Amino acid sequence: MSRLRTPLAVAGLTGLLLLAGCGGDSGSGGEAVSAGPVADIDCARAGQVRGSGSTAQQNAMNFWIREYQRACSRVQVAYNPLGSGAGVAQFMRGATAFGGTDTPVDPAEDRPAEGVCPGGKVINLPVVAGPIALGYHVPGVEDLVLDASTIARIFDSRITTWDDPVIQELNPGAELPPLDIRAVHRSDTSGTTQNFQAYLAGAAPEVWSHPAEKAWHGRGGDSADGSDNVASTVSSTAGSIGYFELSFAEKLHMDTVRVDTGASEPVAATTQTASAGIAAARVVGKGQDLTLRFDYRTSAEDTYPIVLASYEIVCDQGNAAETLPALKSFLTYTASEEGQEPLARIHYAPLPESVTAEVLKVISTLS
Fold it and tell me: What is the CB-side half-sphere exposure of residue 154 using CA atoms within 13 A?
């Protein structure tokens, strides 16, 4: 690989990206981010890299691809945010060089199609993390506190109005309206859904008995396809509440729930509070697989418990020779300090250095 740092204009590049719903000059789903100096990236000489999957990565990918292309104009990178389930399926049949997913695959159980990863296996590399925010639209309520048990009851249709005594007890002094709750969940298979249900099962097991899967299992409620559509539905529908990545709430200037974890103060969803939860995660994958596990019942101060890590799934061996140099170059940038440090500006939580060091080590060995 050779270093190519010519500061070419983004508008002059071809084959730039396939980002549904996102413009090429925005780093957070519509929020402008200053371009700044061209990143110092070890560029591949040429190549095309296609990925698809997680909408949780959508805004980070938008930023990364733009910055990578500014430095590495001879490489074309594309990412289609179809959702984690579709991203895994496309990668497993060999349609993409990497897949974005918010739910790690099981390298021992999830086998790609014949001819994909020959001589190797699929592994998970965490590349971005952040809070899953609970955005809400309740007229007259600008500060809403909920705990895990109440959140679980709301999304399982056991609490159905905003003036329910359980919610009122958590929000003394608030004027909660006698308005029906419309809990909005993802209609597509989604890693965000899996992580949210994992939180509910982990933090409120006495209430939430549903499996933590990519498909939604709560009772009742409304649904929408993709995090962006869930956020838009909540923003436009009085009485609604939904779960999605913080960047979508920030884009729509939406109020988000503070979570009563048992700490001295309820915890808001921010990149700082999410980073505290992410830093406590443990690597539970084996070998080169870097799957993380979170503590959803934490009561540590200023630690937000509803977090996710979003992964790229790749072949540890057997990557296509024509895409491997560009794939390694691009993924190395995403996990580098230059790729991670700006993420807080677009409402993600940069991964701890202890994690990125392991990710970079594994990327260097891909073959």
Answer: 29
Residue type, 361: K
pTM, whole model, 2 decimals?
Answer: 0.77
Tokens 């695959």 correspond to 105
Q: Taking the CA of residue 183 as centre, how many other CA atoms within 13 Å lie in the half-sphere pointing to its CB?
A: 20
Q: Where are the beta strands (DSSP E) in 98-181?
A: 98-101, 122-137, 145-147
pLDDT digits (tens, 9 = 90+) for 24-74: 333 334 444 545 778 789 999 999 999 999 988 988 999 999 999 999 999
């733009």: which residue's tokens?
A: 66
Task: Specify the domain boundaries for CATH 3.40.190.10 within the chain.
Answer: 10-117+316-365, 131-279
CATH number of 10-117+316-365, picked from 3.90.1150.10, 3.40.190.10, 3.40.720.10, 3.40.50.720: 3.40.190.10
The pLDDT tens digits of the residues spanning 264-321 come to 999 999 999 998 888 878 899 999 999 999 999 999 999 999 999 999 999 999 999 9
47-72 burial, b if ≥16 CB within 10 A, otherwise e?
bebbbbbbbbbbbbbbbbbbbbbbbb
Q: In CATH, which superfamily holds the domain spanning 131-279?
A: Periplasmic binding protein-like II (3.40.190.10)
Distance, in Å, from the CA atom of 56 to the CA atom of 17, rounded to the nearest integer, reads: 17
Q: Determine the 3-state secondary structure of 188 from DSSP.
A: coil
